[in-house]
Design brief:
single chain; 526 residues; alpha/beta; Alkaline Phosphatase, subunit A; Immunoglobulin-like; 14 helices; 26% helix
């Protein structure tokens, strides 16, 4: 570990050694994240009469339902980049979809701070951070990862990610749909004829079928989440575990996923913590997905690193409520666009930095969706009407302003309204201030950004760590600034090196060093 990283981690942990951190962590709550893909708050507990989500509705009744939770991007990899680091992707250079960013050296996956404090951290089974997940992020990552792999009495942070709600499963082949929904009873399935569509979708059988399938997949996900909650009960862990259920961004349908309208960034967020969160409570304060990391660190008793851009929303260390949340859209697969938004509890401001580009640019993956095909067909035939035509305008306005309380589908642009001029100016300035404060990299051409991160296109490799074994103590150092170190003394599992540790005489040590956006070091041993 570099000197910089050693000082940083030591400050964050308040000088705890790994062993000391584990001792203190034994008294801290466990954390279970139930994460799902491509899903807006289309659940019974959020007032969707078409939805069937009895198990998650029960979870909401046992804790808190957040009505204003938002992601920082409308697509998975940038959004998850923000969640795992607690920082805006536009600050890190991880804002383009399917890119490989090089975050600043002080940036870590926040799970390293939990691991160093003694938590057993598992991920089942998605990373997708727009940088490769480092070896030091998780104790266990993959389809078999589970809190049950921890040492006796060790607190845990376990993530389970559900894929059945993903965009691709709405348009899945019939046999895949049958597998996804095999547990659904006939009464659990959604009748397309009863679907209530957003006003910007054409009302056709193909669109109704997609909407019904999306809801069927949510019901299937609800059943799968229930199994994990039962396992928690069976293990006697429910009373001391903070459970969060959340989505990584909005639903995987046109004008939702990839966009920063509320349909693309407004997510479900439920929290249960017996004895600490009042049952059946409703929280209307603004929450950003950047807040997930600092919330867990605060509840674990770990100092929150100063570079994190989120803030806690649970526990005893909750600051004043947010005034705004922010989100960004940049390159989506093969298509460039640059859009930013700021939202308060009532109004949403959107700044289109490339207004000459139409909304409905072609994205091959998105264009496979039957709803998208139907919208393109009807547009070509001149049959879209009213709000349905908004998405197919030749160009975008430079600014958009919506009263989301009165216009939740964001179809009535108030940017030109004299009666809303003061609101427009306030949010415009908030947007500009945020871009300056967070050092938004979005206006840099992507090739220039790549050159800054990897001059000449060359990937940097983390330096090989140096191992010292002396007087029964193991010390490991790495010359690369911002590096983290993984080591093993039994060859079975990689541990995070967070400071000097005792080792048995004759122990065989192996170590590797890593830094976000770099190649891992060569493995070394002693």
């Amino acid at each position: 570990m570099s000197d910089f990283s050693r000082r940083d981690l030591g400050r964050v942990l308040g000088g705890l050694t790994l062993a000391g951190g584990r001792s203190r962590a034994a008294e801290r709550p466990n954390f279970l994240w139930l994460s799902t893909e491509d899903m807006s708050p289309n659940m019974g507990c959020y007032g969707d009469p078409y939805a069937r989500t009895p198990n998650l509705d029960k979870l909401a009744a046992q804790g808190a339902r957040f009505t204003r939770a938002f992601t920082v991007a409308g697509v998975c990899a940038p959004s998850r980049s923000g969640i795992i680091t607690g920082m805006h992707p536009t600050t890190l250079g991880t804002h383009h979809m399917r890119s490989k960013g090089v975050p600043p050296p002080y940036v870590k996956c926040f799970t390293e701070y939990l691991r160093a404090a003694g938590y057993y951290c598992t991920n089942n089974a998605k990373t997708d951070y727009n940088f490769d997940a480092p070896l030091t992020a998780w104790d266990e990552s993959g389809p078999k990862a589970h809190w049950r792999g921890r040492e006796k009495g060790q607190p845990f942070f376990a993530v389970f990610n559900n894929l059945v709600t993903h965009e691709s499963q709405i348009r899945a082949a019939p046999e895949q749909y049958a597998r996804n929904t095999r547990e659904l009873r006939a009464e659990d399935r959604h009748d397309p004829a009863k679907a209530v569509l957003p006003p910007y979708y054409p009302d056709t059988p193909a669109v109704r079928k997609d909407w019904a399938t999306y809801h069927d997949n949510i019901t299937a996900m609800d059943l799968q989440m229930a199994r994990l909650l039962r396992q928690l009960e069976e293990d006697g862990l429910a009373d001391n575990t903070v459970v969060l259920f959340w989505g990584d961004h909005g639903r995987g349908l046109p004008r939702a996923k990839r966009w920063i309208y509320d349909s693309g960034i407004h997510i479900p967020l439920l929290a249960r913590w017996p004895g600490r969160i009042p049952a059946g409570s409703v929280r209307d304060d603004l929450v950003s997905s950047l807040d997930f990391a600092p919330t867990l660190l605060a509840l674990a008793g770990v100092e929150i690193p100063k570079h994190l851009q989120g803030q806690p929303f649970l526990g005893d260390r909750v600051p004043a409520p947010r005034k705004y949340i922010y989100a960004a859209r940049d390159r989506m697969d093969e298509t460039y666009d640059t859009i930013r938004c700021v939202r308060d509890t009532r109004y949403k401001y959107i700044r289109n930095y490339q207004p000459g580009r139409p909304y409905a640019q072609h994205i091959a993956y998105m264009d496979e969706m039957p709803t998208m095909k139907e919208m393109r067909r009807l547009d070509a035939e001149g049959k879209l009407t009213g709000a349905q035509r908004l998405f197919f305008q030749d160009r975008k306005p430079e600014e958009e302003l919506f009263d989301v309380a009165e216009d939740p589908h964001e179809v009535n642009n108030l940017a030109g309204s004299a009666g809303h001029a003061a609101v427009l100016e306030r949010l415009r300035q908030a947007h500009l201030e945020w871009r300056r404060e967070t050092r938004d990299l979005g206006l840099l051409p992507e090739p220039e950004l790549h050159e800054r991160m990897r001059p000449g296109g060359k990937w940097m490799t983390t330096a090989t760590p140096a191992i010292t074994l002396q007087d029964g103590k193991l010390r490991i150092a790495c010359a690369t600034e911002g590096s983290s170190i993984a080591y093993t003394t039994d060859g079975a599992r990689w541990k995070l090196y967070a400071g000097e540790v005792p080792v048995a005489p004759g122990a065989k040590v192996r170590a590797r060093a890593c830094r976000l956006g770099y190649r891992d070091s060569a493995e070394t041993g002693a």
